[in-house]
Specification:
Porin, 2 domains, single chain
């Protein structure tokens, strides 16, 4: 441990001698190789910690399980594998590289296993520092049938130690002109969801979702739901979530001869995300909706996303979404699906 502090002191001395301005609040990491990194720890996400330094134009990204020592001056939203959440600073326990002292601003110091920390996010005392944002677009041109397809996706999130908010929007517009006849299709979906952390890995959820689909003759499907969920597994390699509750479904159709319909539903959901596969991130979810007021009706929403990350926070994403309804209105299909390949950037 004395050697670690000596290395850290020498590195700080080099900064001062170089005359370069230091980051106002200095955080530090020491790797299991003895290498020291000094700067601003920005986040730990999906098993990788990002630190910005004054001596490099690009951020360093290192694997969390290779970190032997951490000391932060900034405050962080901190999550552990057993569902505990904190807001404060971190410092490794002297003499034990496996332990970290978390100085929570509300509840004081706690000692946790460093390997149990699955998420860190640097936050200031303002709203914008807690925001995540992903934007991506895609375009496909097929000469054979003069087909043009434009895709766009936006995901935004807000996180505190008590609540998580997710906002998403996806749109696909397709135009085909075979034999001088224009055929256009469109699909738009979005939603706003809230997760209120109750105790450890348990959370309450509430949200609204909407879908517009030419295939299912939906001018608008709006879904309001609430329930409860649990992180069955939450590590630096993956997480697995189960959730369930009740929902109210309202549907307005683009055919004026078809009456709008509403139904009360139950729902059960499974979500799985694995990110310990190099630069790949795989996320999938499925939700089933048995109706309480329409006998025999059952709906399913399924999604699959495979993201490959490039330097400078750019990425390419392959996304597949499927909506199934075993009792569609007359003239509509039971399934609607979309396959999107988009290129984007993450804030």
């Amino acid at each position: 441990m004395r050697l670690r502090f000596t290395v850290l002191a020498m590195l700080l001395g080099l900064f001062l001698l170089s005359g370069k301005p230091l980051i106002a609040q200095i955080d530090s990491l020491i790797m299991n190789t003895g290498e020291a990194l000094v700067g601003e720890v920005k986040e730990l996400r999906q098993g990788v910690v990002t630190i910005e330094t004054d001596y490099s134009d690009s951020d360093f990204k290192v694997e969390w399980d290779k970190v032997n020592y951490i000391h932060t001056e900034r405050n962080y939203i901190i999550s552990t594998s057993n569902g505990d959440r904190y807001h404060g600073t971190l410092i490794s326990l002297e003499g034990d590289a496996t332990k970290v002292i978390v100085n929570d601003l509300e509840h004081g110091p706690s000692t946790v296993n460093i390997i149990d920390i699955v998420h860190l996010k640097s936050v200031d005392n303002n709203f914008l520092s807690r925001i995540d944002l992903l934007m991506s677009v895609g375009y496909t041109l097929t000469k054979a049938n003069e087909s043009h397809q434009l895709s766009a996706r936006i995901n935004a999130g807000y996180l505190s130690n008590k609540i998580a908010v997710d906002l998403y929007f996806s749109a696909v517009r397709s135009i085909q002109k075979p034999d001088s006849i224009t055929i256009s299709t469109k699909r738009t979906e979005g939603g706003l969801g809230f997760r209120f952390f109750i105790y450890q890995d348990w959370f309450a959820l509430a949200g609204v979702e909407f879908l517009q689909s030419s295939e299912q003759k939906l001018n608008l499907r709006s879904l309001t739901k609430a329930g409860i969920g649990n992180y069955i597994l939450n590590t630096n390699r993956m997480y697995f979530v189960l959730a369930g509750g009740a929902a109210w479904n309202y549907e307005d159709y683009n055919d004026i001869t078809i009456e709008d319909r509403s139904s009360a539903e139950l729902f059960a959901a499974i979500e799985y995300n694995i990110f310990d596969i190099g630069d790949l991130d795989l996320k999938t979810s499925i939700v089933g909706y048995p109706s309480l007021t329409e006998s025999g009706r059952f709906r399913t929403d399924y999604s699959f996303d495979l993201k490959y990350e490039f330097p400078l926070d750019f990425f390419i994403n392959l996304g597949f979404t499927l909506n199934y309804d075993n009792m569609p209105v007359e003239g509509a299909t039971t399934t609607d699906y979309v396959l999107q390949t988009t290129f984007g950037w993450e804030l």
